[in-house]
Amino acid sequence: MPVKAYDMLAHTLTRAGIPGPKALQALRHYVVAGDVDRACDVAFDMYRTSEDWEGRIWDELMQIALREVGLADPYAVEQVHSLRKIKETTEIYNPAGGGMHCLCFVQAIRYLCACGRDDSLEAVAKEIRGALDGGAQPVIPDFCYDHHTRLGVEWGRTPLDFLDPDGGSKVVPALEGVAEPYIARLREILTPEYGHGEKYKAPGYIAWEHFNARSGVSADLILAAFQKCIRRAMEHEALMVACDGFLSGRDFEEYFFKRMVIMSIEDIGMGDPNCHRLMAAYRDSRTYFPDDPDTRLMYLFQGVRYLCSCKKERATELIKGIMVKEFAAGKVPEMPE
To answer: Which domain holds residue 183?
Structure first.
C-alpha cells in the first residue's frame, strides 16, 4: 500500500495561530459562500505566514475553480491560472506590504466568489472510475478506425473517407455553413488520389500501435477514440477512453492534454475562438499537482466535458490541409497590384 507523503503544512499554524487545515477549510467555505471579505482575510493571514502558505492559497483557489465552479464558468480555471502566473513573474513575495502577489489572489477570490456553482465533476469522475474498476471496457466506435490507425489502414480507410459525412472528421454540434466549402474543396483535391479505390500509403510505423492501454485496447485506437468521440460530443465514451488511457501511464496523460489544446483549434475553431486559452490553462494548471493524480485526472475530465459541449467547425484544419496539397503541387500566393 503506498505511503501518503507527509504534509508539513498540515501540522503548522498560520501567523494568526489558526491550524493549517482549518484555514484551508475556511478559505474554501467563504469563497464557495461568496463572502469576499472573509475569504480575503483568511487568505492574507496565510499569505503573510510564508511563501509555502501562499502556494497553498493558490492550490486551493485552483481546486475551487475546477471542482466547485466547474462548468458554471469553465473559464474560472483560466482566470485563476493566469493570475497565478502573473504574480510569479511580476514582483517578489512581500508579506508586509502585500504587493502584486496579494493583488492577484484578491482578484482571484473576487472572481470566484461571483461565479455560479457546478460541482457535478466529482459525481461524473466517480461514475467513470467505478465503471472501469468494475471491469467495463472503453468503447471504440467504427468511425475511429480511420487512416490514423493500423487497423483502419488495413481495412482500406483513406483521407478521403475521413471527410465523409459520417467519417472520422464529423463534428457535433456543428457550426453550420462554415466548414462545408472547405470540405468540398479538399474532397476535390483528394479524389484523384483516393477516389478510385487507391490505398492510403501509410507510414511504416504508426505511433502507439505497438502497446496497449490498461484495458488491453491498442493505444492507437485509444487515442483515435479520444479525439473522435469528443468531436461527436459523445461525452461518456470520451471520458471512459480518457480515464483508461490516463490510468495506463504518464505518456497517455501528456498526449491527452496536448491533444486537447490542438483540438481547441483544429475541431472547435470559431465555435469558441478562446478555447485554446482554456485548454492550455487545463494543461498547465495540472502541473501544480505533480503528486496528486486525482486532481490531474479531474482537469482532463473537465477539459473533455467542455470540448464535448462546444459548437465545432474544422475550417482551420481544412484550410491548412488545402494549402499543404496546393503548395506541394506548385501553387504560389497571389500578390496585390
So the answer is: 125-323
- Between CA 222 and CA 157 the distance in angstroms is 18
- Show which of 71, 90, 114 is a domain's final residue: 114
Q: Which residues on adjacent β-strands are paired with residue 13?
A: 19
Q: CA-CA distance, 169 to 267, in Å (whole number)? A: 9
Phi, psi angles (nearest 5°) of residue 312: -135, 150
Q: Name every residue whose Cβ is closer than 8 Å to that of residue 275 and which is 6 or more positions away in sequence.
A: 264, 265, 268, 306, 307, 310
Each residue's pLDDT tens digit, 84-96: 999 999 999 999 8
In whole angstroms, give the CA distance from residue 220 to residue 212.
Answer: 8
CATH number at residue 266: 1.20.272.10
- Contact between 214 and 136 under an 8 Å Cβ cutoff? The reply is no
C-alpha distances out from residue 8 to 11, 12, 53, 126, 163, Å: 6, 7, 11, 29, 55
User: Half-sphere exposure of residue 325, counting CA atoms within 13 Å on the CB side?
Assistant: 17
Is residue 297 in a domain?
Answer: yes
Q: Each residue's pLDDT tens digit in the chain (337 positions)?
A: 445 665 777 779 999 999 999 999 999 999 999 999 999 999 999 999 999 999 999 999 999 999 999 999 999 999 999 999 999 999 999 998 999 999 999 999 999 999 999 999 999 999 999 999 999 999 999 999 999 898 998 898 999 999 999 999 999 999 999 999 999 999 999 999 887 777 777 665 567 888 899 999 999 999 999 999 999 999 999 999 999 999 999 999 999 999 999 999 999 999 999 999 999 999 999 999 999 999 999 999 999 999 999 999 999 999 999 999 999 999 999 999 9
CA gap 250, 253 in Å, rounded: 5
Q: Of the residues 86, 114, 142, which one is the last residue of a structural domain?
A: 114
Residues 89 and 215 in one domain: no
Instruction: Report the distance separating Cα 99 and Cα 222, nearest Å.
Output: 47
Residue with cell 489558526: 18
36 and 77 in a single domain? The answer is: yes
334 in a structural domain:
no
